[in-house]
Amino acid sequence: MSEEKRLREKGLAFFGSITASFSHEINNVMAIIAELAGLMEDLLRVADQGHPPPLERFRGISERIGTQVKRGEGMIKRLNRFAHTMDEPVKTVDTTDLLEDLVALSERPRTRRRARLETRFPEDKILLVSNPFLLQQAIFSCMELVLAASNDKQLLRLILEKQDGGARITVSGEDPIVKTDEAALSFLPILMEELGGKVEFIPTGNGGLSLVLSLPSSIPGDSKNHTQ
Amino acid sequence: MAPLRVLLIDDEEELVSTLVERLMLRGIEVDGVTSGADAFGRVQEKRFDVVVLDMKMPGMGGLEVMRRIRREQPGVKFVLMTGRGSLEEGEEGKQEGASAYLLKPINIEDLIEKMMEAVRV
Predict the structure, then answer these.
(1) What is the interface pTM, i.e. ipTM, of the complex?
(2) Are residues A131 and A216 in the same domain?
(3) Residues contacting residue A113 through CB under 8 Å, at least 6 positions apart
(4) Closest chain B residue to A43 measured between Cα atoms?
(5) pTM to 2 decimals?
(6) What would the pLDDT profile of A78-117 be if each residue is shown by its tens digit?
(7) Is A106 strand, coil or helix?
(8) In whole angstroms, what is the distance from residue B18 CA to residue B14 CA?
(9) Domain B5-120, CATH among 3.40.50.720, 1.10.1060.10, 3.40.50.2300, 3.40.50.2000
(10) Do B18 and A32 touch (CB under 8 A)?
(11) 3-state DSSP assignment of residue A170
(12) Does the beta-carbon distance from A32 to B21 stay under 8 Å?
């Protein structure tokens, strides 16, 4: 399979995986709202039978619905931003914002493996002229690789730092590696090449895996290079 | 007639607490838990007629939870809940002996009907 075809197929698979798992989360929010509305109806039915309407319970349920609506709105905004990362192949990206969105979007795959996540992002913004979709795909692939390499319940670390005007993103797990996904490992360098960066695989002290992505301030050869 | 004893398992805490309230208003005895581990603890303490189980649980999958609960309480019936994109998990659950599966968001009357059908068989 050509590299271009592989990139396209892997990109579609990543897009599908994120939208499927996140829409499942949105469906859960809808299910909760439906049940809370149903509970209100149940209580009204009881009130129709001559019992005084439990106003305090209604107030509580209304607040609970409000909480879920806000939760759902936040999810839809993130999913929408994710979909828009495909609009332009190269644009100025706030790396922290991008990572925060990705952390939220990838919550389900992490919780399914009962992994904990520790993040360390710098206070100052790191702006890169890059491909936001491929960048998210590269970081997500690293997270998947680390999660799949070890047993459940591991601690996953995601660190963003400034490096030579660009950025350095480290994804690591401390638990010993039990298996590695060779196909995913071989694909990461291809993805990083598209981003003008590189990936290093560094074993951690106790047999875990650390993936370090080095990203330039802008993708080499891109016309936006000269306008930033 | 003794009330139906139901164990409800879903990792969404708010969904569990709301469904528990709604089922209790209908005279059903319900215990709600948010993980497979909590469910295993509960089935060791108490007998249930029906287990209502979300198939997409963090960690151990729904099928594994179902198998382990059945080992503890062989006669218990299962009604599964699944997302629109996971119909095959519901079908797989039925092949493993679940009485029925419902798509989320569920309709409470459908859930009660499926639970009643399950215990009648």
Answers:
(1) 0.89
(2) yes
(3) A147, A152, A153, A154, B58, B59
(4) B25
(5) 0.84
(6) 999 999 999 998 999 999 999 999 999 988 888 878 888 9
(7) coil
(8) 6
(9) 3.40.50.2300
(10) yes
(11) strand
(12) no
